Amino acid sequence: MKRAIEPTSIERTMRENDFIVSKTNAKGIITYGNPIFIEFSGYTEAELLGSQHNIIRHPDMPRSVFKLAWDTIQSGKEFFGYVKNMSKDGGFYWVFTHIAPDFDANRQIVGFTSVRRCPRREAISKIEPVYREMLQAERAAGARDAIAAGTQVLVDLLNKSGTGYEELAFSL
Ligand SMILES: Cc1cc2nc3c(=O)[nH]c(=O)nc-3n(C[C@H](O)[C@H](O)[C@H](O)COP(=O)(O)O)c2cc1C
Questions:
Q1: Closest Cα partner for 155 from 144, 146, 163?
Q2: Which of 54, 126, 127, 150 is the most exposed place for a label (fewest CB within 10 A)?
Q3: Cα separation of 28 and 89, whole Å?
Q4: How far apart are CA 153 and CA 157, in angstroms?
Q5: What is the per-residue pLDDT across 61-98, written as a single tens digit (0 to 9) for each?
Q6: In the Cβ-directed half-sphere of 32, how many Cα atoms lie within 13 Å?
Q7: In this predicted model, what pLDDT tens digit does every residue of 25-65 receive, in sequence order?
Q8: How far apart are CA 132 and CA 6, in angstroms?
Q9: Rounded Cα distance, 155 and 127, in Å
Q10: Is the pLDDT reported for residue 1 higher than 80?
Q11: Radius of gyration, CA atoms only, the chain
């Protein structure tokens, strides 16, 4: 069972040239993490390997963002987006992530690879209120309807600005 971690307001900031890399099997179980992934997570490599990737999930992240990410990568496409992660000590760090499927010779998805870079500060300050609104909508809707409610907030915003999520992510 996952240990409950109390989130703190201590932020770790990615350095300009950092790349946080991790790999999972097709079910999201971590199979690889580079040294910077291990450093930011605060866990040991032994603790990370074999764990679900949600081990670094931050409670401020809306569920609907991960639903969008999984729907995208499971359909064989790449996902780009901003994610707030939580370290083992409860601290947090923002990343701009790219997640892509790994295929075998028969085009079957055998796993996923994620490479994260340092996001721009302005992008974080723009996406944070969007995520807050999505999370509020999810909580208000209750567990069963959370994903639909959070997604609706994002869809409304995208319709208003006439963009897709990926475009939005790159425009921030
Ligand atoms: C390659 C890969 C990288 C991922 N990276 C992260 C990540 O950095 N942070 C995160 O919270 N979830 C990440 N996820 C998504 C998690 O698997 C999970 O869906 C998410 O944390 C939500 O957890 P939950 O479904 O238990 O709510 C990643 C998934 C994959 C396949």
A1: 163
A2: 54
A3: 22
A4: 6
A5: 999 999 999 999 999 999 999 999 999 999 999 999 99
A6: 11
A7: 999 999 999 999 999 999 999 999 999 999 999 999 999 99
A8: 18
A9: 14
A10: no
A11: 16
Distance 150 CA to ligand 1 centre (A): 17
In 10 A of CB 142, how many CB atoms?
9
Angstrom CA distances, 16 to 13, 69, 115, 125, stand at 9, 24, 14, 18
Taking residue 58's Cβ as centre, other Cβ atoms within 10 Å add up to 18
What is the rounded CA–CA span in Å between residue 82 and residue 44?
A: 24
Overall pTM > 0.85: yes
